[in-house]
Write a structure and sequence with these properties.
By secondary structure, the protein is of the alpha/beta class. Among the domains are: 136 residues, Nucleoside Triphosphate Pyrophosphohydrolase (Alpha-Beta Complex), CATH 3.90.79.10; 162 residues, Rossmann fold. The protein contains 13 helices and 18 strands. The strands form 3 sheets. Strands 1, 2, 3, 4, 5, 6, 7 and 8 form an 8-stranded mixed sheet that branches. α4 runs antiparallel to α5 and α4 runs parallel beside α6. The radius of gyration is 24 Å and the shape is globular. Keywords: Initiation factor, Protein biosynthesis. This is Initiation factor 2B. It comes from Haloarcula taiwanensis. InterPro entries: IF-2B-related, IF_2B-like_C, NagB/RpiA_transferase-like, NUDIX_hydrolase-like_dom_sf, NUDIX_hydrolase_dom.
Length: 431
């Protein structure tokens, strides 16, 4: 039996993946659902790198090649196809996708964005779940990722719980990460939820969103966990989008920002300002990437962190828009180091300052752990010098206005949301 390499690509957006129903124009598995798929060899029979083939198939079958970012390439798997006398060597890929409008070719009859557990119930190409299992997020994704922000990781945390609950409900113990934790299904899922919410102590939104889901579980069953987590995931996706829309109603035409926030980017996209001033945001230089991304749609000025406060005034910024790592119950905002000085400079320049985030970033308690980056990023010499390289700083409530999906918040609003988060965090004691 000949072995032929193929790719299966999962395009992920807002916690869902794209499935395509195969038409009569394809040579196998007609009428069944699959990811974006195709041969590694091109039409002339020439071998390609699997990732090159994956991106080409995404372009041909969805028109979304320019909207995707590779997240992970999984270990390949083999699928024996006796009807065609071939063994498929499947190379699975996961891509994040910024768009959801699909342009199909003749190989597809319909498309659907679905939560991945639907793979377990649809008529799919063979071993589609196994391919997903090899690229899906795990607890380690939340614990070890140092590239993405807290909002992104909070969605991944919920995806882990959702998929594990669905597998437990389907009796698919071979794929269960929770099996390592022992006990019955509920105990294992609860243990995984507790582990994930503690995985990133500095990212309060991860814990809040896990707690929101687990506090809403109707009964101690995998199906109930899956439903509650999926609802929490949908809430999270909507909250981030609505928060940006609310903020867009309040900002001016000359915006300033620092660091990198997906919510702030959504505000800029929604308002189409005449110009944006961006701080470089050392040491990670996230602002440089933000400036490059925005340059195609508006006039962008990139400046140093040291000059940012001065340029806010000289450049005539009318609004400073920042994200938030967390909002403390008294209205103070913890965010990328440099936010405090930028906010105080904005006040001096008579510019508005908004911290835009989902309400799930409001901390249930006023405590937070200061986080230090590597001191070598600041000083790599051998002189005995104490080095401070904080990741975050704290902006006083008087210098910033917090905007969430619930609107512009006063301090008493923030306190009430913090109380609700604190109550949900006690789900382990109530079970």
């Amino acid at each position: 039996m000949a072995t032929r390499p193929v790719v299966t690509c999962f395009l992920r957006s807002e916690g869902e993946v794209l499935l395509l129903r195969r038409s009569g124009a394809v040579g196998s598995y007609r009428g069944q659902w699959g990811g974006v798929a195709g041969h590694v060899a091109d039409d002339a029979g020439r071998d390609r790198d699997p990732e090159t083939a994956a991106r080409a198939e995404i372009d041909e079958e969805t028109g979304l090649a320019d909207a995707v970012t590779l997240v992970r390439r999984g270990d390949s798997l083999q699928v024996a196809d006796d009807d065609h006398g071939v063994r498929w060597q499947v190379h699975p890929f996961l891509f994040d996708c910024e768009a959801r409008t699909v342009t199909t070719n003749e190989e597809t009859t319909e498309t659907a964005w679905v939560h991945p557990p639907e793979i377990l119930t649809r008529e799919t190409v063979p071993r589609l779940w196994t391919a997903w299992d090899r690229v899906r997020p795990r607890a380690a994704t939340v614990r070890e990722d140092r590239t993405h922000g807290s909002a992104w990781l909070s969605i991944r945390a919920l995806e882990v719980l959702r998929d594990e609950a669905a597998l437990a409900d389907a009796g698919r113990s071979d794929d269960l990460e929770t099996a390592e934790r022992g006990g019955d299904d509920w105990s294992a899922l609860a243990a995984l939820a507790a582990e994930i919410r503690e995985a990133r102590p500095s990212m309060v939104v991860v814990a809040n969103r896990v707690n929101r889901a687990m506090a809403a579980v109707a009964d101690q069953s995998p199906a109930a966990v899956e439903r509650a987590v999926t609802e929490s995931l949908n809430h999270a996706v909507t909250a981030d989008r609505v928060a940006a829309a609310v903020a867009a109603e309040h900002v001016g035409d000359r915006l300033a920002t620092l660091s990198r926030s997906g919510t702030v980017r959504a505000v800029v996209d929604a308002t189409a300002p005449e110009a944006v001033l961006v701080a470089e945001s050392r040491p990670g230089s996230e602002g440089v990437g933000v400036a490059e991304t925005l340059a195609g749609s508006t006039a962008v000025t990139l400046t140093t962190d040291a000059a940012f406060g001065h340029e806010l005034d000289a450049w005539s910024a009318d609004t400073l828009v920042v994200g938030a790592d967390r909002v403390l119950p008294d209205g103070r905002v913890v965010n990328k180091a440099g936010t405090r000085s930028a906010a105080l400079s904005a006040a001096a320049a008579e510019a508005d300052c908004y911290a835009v985030c989902a309400a799930d970033k409001i901390a249930p308690r006023a405590t937070w752990d200061s986080e230090e980056r590597e001191p070598q990023e600041v000083y790599d010499g051998d002189t005995d010098i104490a080095v401070l390289n904080p990741t975050f700083d704290v902006t006083p409530a008087s210098a910033v206005t917090v905007v969430t999906e619930r609107g512009v918040l006063e301090t008493n609003d923030i306190e009430a949301i913090a109380d609700a988060h604190r109550e949900r965090s006690e789900w382990t004691e109530r079970r």
